[in-house]
Structure formats: structure tokens, C-alpha cells
Design brief:
By secondary structure, the protein is α+β, with helices and mostly antiparallel strands. The chain has six helices and 17 strands. The protein has an eight-stranded mixed beta sheet.
């Protein structure tokens, strides 16, 4: 059976946070996003995450006005025990989502704004070539262990009006994986995604790199990288990094609700029931069975989740 994921890519990322109001203010002021929704999630949302349906969940949705994709949903879960998904993590630690990526028009301005709010970079921003692109990228860690990769594209340059906020809508969600080929087969062979880009990232001497690797190791140890997406594009994609012998801790067991950090990305899918059947027929275990409930701003949706070989919690839903 050929598996096809009829999706344009994920259109929201969910951050589980400790301070809902503080995080909303941060992203409004630093990312330049607007609050699109604020309210209480349906009780069935908690049940879909394996929690009592009496668990209260407050949520805020942020994004650039006019964007239909790339929203950030902040959720605050009440009355539950939580741990950080990737506590004190470094790049070479596997498990869950390592970061999310947004484009910026000025790296100096945007990275500096995060630093002023106490975010800590793995390394100062670095310019390098990634496939057909020349970019400046900076990676910084902030609240609840959330990590943002900010990308300023040098070639080909983005138009000055590419997005209205200081940050674009998030467009990519990287994962550090233990077994590159196994992970790639999971997304392509089992979930039915396409490979958008597969390459190696080799840092040039003296070895400055965005991950904070020692310079000699950065030069001598190229990273295997792949970008995967249901339609083979770069918007709403997932990225796999394989640091090889540099792998450290494994946070896979913690990458589940209700823990704190980058919790999940959500893919809208046409023909969700058929897709779920096709996945189980290929041996994919569902982390949560299809459930139906209201989710702002979509209205009634049916949603289920799977987990990647390294624990990333990935949700697929169909509205209506």
C-alpha cells in the first residue's frame, strides 16, 4: 500500500509553557506577532494527550496578520506535574523537537532582542551555505527550554515586505536523530513524506558554527541533514540532523504532553481516516487514537498523533 499524506505541511507549533502571559508578551514585543486567540481549550484536548478531561488548559495563539500557516499556540496546563522536555539540552542531544525556525530580515536586530530578554545563543550567528541558499543563522534558548533558529537569507534575498512582523511565521521544525536512515525511512517510507533536501553541513575553518560545537570537531565532522515535507517544500517542513558520534543525552521519553517546551506540530490532512488506516497498516503505532473536539480557530476537528523514532509528538488533523 502506497501511503500519501495529503497535507500542505504543518501549520502550527504548540509550546507548553509555564508563564502564559509572559510568553505572550515576549512574542508580541520581540517577534512582532499579534494575538489571534486567547481562551480555554476543550476538555477533550486534555484527553487526547492522555490526561484527565477535567485538566484545565489555557491557550494563546500568535501569528503575523494575514498568515494562514505558521501559527504558534501557547498552552498552559493546570494541576499537572510537568518536566522540561529538553532540560539544559545541547544540540547533540536527541529527542523531541530541538528547535523551530523563523526567518528574520535583520539578524542583528532580532537575535539581539532575544539576548536582551535573557535568551542564550549556542554561538553567535554564523553565515554559511545550505543547499542553494546563503544564510546567516543564530540559535538561542529561552523560556521552558524552547529554542528558536533565526535565519536571515542572504542569497537569494527576501523582499523587504516578506512578512509584517519582526519574525516570519515559523516554517521548519528540526529534530536531532540517533539513526539518520531509520528516521528518514519513518517519514518517507511510513508517513508518506517527500525529501525536500538531503545534504551534509560542513563548517569551514576555523570552525565557527551555530551549534556551539568545538571548532575542530565542527570542521572534521560533517552533519547529515534532510528536510522532509508531505509535498516536498520548505514551508511546514521537518528537518533531521544526525550528529553521529557526537550524540549525547536522549530526551525521547520526555517529549510527551504535558511536559514543557516544544510539544508538537500539527499537520492538516485531507482524508484523515484513510491516512490513519494506511499508517497502521504499515505498522505505525498511533500515540493517540483519532478524537473529535473543537479547536480554535478551526472549529470541530478530528486529530490523532504519532511519535517519531526519537520521540517527537506529531499530530495530524482534519477540520469539519
Amino acid at each position: 500500500m502506497v501511503v500519501h499524506c495529503d497535507s500542505p505541511g504543518w501549520n502550527e507549533v504548540v509550546f507548553s509553557v509555564g508563564d502564559l502571559s509572559g510568553c505572550e508578551t515576549l512574542y508580541r514585543e520581540v517577534a512582532g506577532w499579534e494575538t489571534l486567540h486567547r481562551g480555554r481549550a476543550a476538555g477533550t484536548q486534555a484527553a487526547s494527550w492522555g490526561l484527565p478531561d477535567s485538566t484545565a488548559i489555557d491557550e494563546v495563539i500568535l501569528g503575523n496578520p494575514g498568515d494562514e500557516r505558521g501559527m504558534v499556540r501557547l498552552v498552559k496546563l493546570h494541576g499537572v506535574t510537568q518536566r522540561h522536555i529538553r532540560s539544559s539540552a545541547r544540540f547533540w542531544d536527541v529527542g523531541g523537537f530541538s528547535n523551530v525556525s523563523s526567518r528574520v530580515l535583520s539578524m542583528a536586530e532580532s537575535f539581539g532582542a532575544l539576548q536582551q530578554r535573557g535568551w542564550v545563543g549556542h554561538h553567535d550567528p554564523v553565515q554559511y551555505e545550505f543547499g542553494p541558499y546563503t544564510v546567516i543563522e543564530g540559535v538561542a534558548t529561552g523560556h521552558d527550554g524552547v529554542v528558536f533558529s533565526l535565519v536571515e537569507r542572504i542569497e537569494p534575498a527576501l523582499p523587504a515586505n516578506a512578512f509584517p512582523g519582526h519574525f516570519s511565521a515559523p516554517f521548519n521544525a528540526p529534530q536531532v536523530v540517533r539513526d539518520f536512515r531509520r528516521s528518514l525511512d519513518f517519514y518517507v517510507g511510513q508517513l508518506g513524506f517527500q525529501v525536500t533536501l538531503e545534504t551534509e553541513v560542513a563548517w569551514q575553518p576555523p570552525g565557527a558554527n551555530i551549534f556551539g560545537l568545538p571548532y575542530r570537531l565542527a570542521v572534521e565532522s560533517p552533519l547529515e541533514v534532510a528536510v522532509v515535507h508531505p509535498e516536498g517544500t520548505m514551508v511546514g517542513s521537518l528537518e533531521l540532523f544526525a550528529p553521529g558520534d557526537l550524540i549525547g543525552r536522549d530526551f525521547s521519553d520526555l517529549a510527551v504532553p504535558p511536559n514543557l517546551g516544544i510539544l508538537t506540530v500539527r499537520f492538516p490532512v485531507l482524508g484523515l481516516a484513510d491516512y490513519a488506516h494506511a499508517l497502521t497498516a504499515r505498522g505505525v503505532e498511533l500515540a493517540s487514537e483519532p478524537m473529535r473536539f473543537d479547536v480554535a480557530p478551526y472549529g470541530p476537528i478530528t486529530v490523532f498523533a504519532v511519535r517519531s523514532p526519537d520521540g517527537a509528538w506529531i499530530e495530524f488533523y482534519e477540520a469539519g
